[in-house]
Amino acid sequence: MLIAPAGLANVVVADTEIGDVRGDEGFYHYREYSAVELARSKSFEEVWFLFVHGHLPEHTELDAFVAETRSLRTLPDEISGILATSAMLGGDRELLPGLRTTLSALGPAFRVRPLWDSDEQTRRFDALRATALTPTILAALHRIRTGQAPLAPRDDLGVAANWLYLLTGGEPSRAHARALEQYLILTMDHGFNASTFTARVIASTGADVHAALCGALGAFSGPLHGGAPDRALDSLDEIVAHGDALTWAREQVAQRRRIMGFGHAVYRTEDPRSLLLREVAQGLGGPTVDAAIDAEQAIVDALAQAHPDHPRYANVEFYAGVVMDACGIPRSMFTPTFAVSRTVGWSANILEQANSRKIIRPAARYVGPPPTLA
């Protein structure tokens, strides 16, 4: 039997037209476009359209897409009871269990059929609606948990600005909305990461879109995956309190503690997402941004001294937390914000996998005690 490397590292399990990550080059793309350049020049809705339809939209196509998706982001009234219950699930800073519960309940409420039994147009609509509803659900859960009434989405705001409005109830500034939009575009998809692969495995069984998204969210909730942005900012708080970033970093390395926000499973260069988010953070300014830039260099230096043959750089989570904090997003909502964007990528992968009629069913090598033969 051919034995795959631990974690299936570099094992090709499917063909995809959605995008790719080139870790040795420090580059990743959506379809044929650099993801970083899309984040620099396009809106969330334009890139979302690219994931759904495979090309960037013309003006009339974009207008129609915006109108369609904005019509899908209002929650039905009958879900209010489930929202109230779901808001109390999970820990003090975690709302992903509530999102999973709500999405799971919405599947039968909307009579979503299995991918196996649905045509392409129906599958696309189910995925589009689930993606459009995700920020509305998460913001409602946050506001209920904090003793506030949920807000209805505003038809005059794009996805990023609407997310800030739904969370805070205030009019988002153009600078904050654009900074957040760039972050959201950068994190829509990133190769066959754990949550994306989970979504595709579930989709390969013919299950419905909501089931596949809930599975992806389960994988995403882990601290080694989507749960890192707030932890990275916690580390920055420790550094500021310590007063000496380099000494702090050396202490972490000496104690073999993982420094959240640094290193990546794929990139052997600087993370291109982090490079752009550093620019975005500098544009927003503030003491946290200044502290982050100083800390980044100190941590990179400490890691280089400890691992000269395997340099580690800031990954997307480090500056993601800094940018979201500068935009006024509560720390408890960092990972949910990441989920708002990644749902676009998960949905695209679910729909692509649904075109295959082959279930994903790998093998495992048994290494336990020999079985007793009858």
From TrEMBL:
GO molecular function (one): citrate synthase activity
SUPFAM superfamilies in the record: Citrate synthase
Catalytic activity field: oxaloacetate + acetyl-CoA + H2O = citrate + CoA + H(+)
Pfam families in the record: Citrate_synt
UniProt KW keywords: Transferase
Gene3D superfamilies noted in UniProt: Citrate Synthase, domain 1, Cytochrome P450-Terp, domain 2
Active site: H264, E317
Pathway: Carbohydrate metabolism; tricarboxylic acid cycle
Highest taxon of the lineage: Bacteria
One GO term of the biological process aspect: tricarboxylic acid cycle
GO CC annotation, single: cytosol
Annotated signal peptide: none
Family: Belongs to the citrate synthase family.
Name of the protein in question: Citrate synthase
Record organism: Gordonia aichiensis NBRC 108223
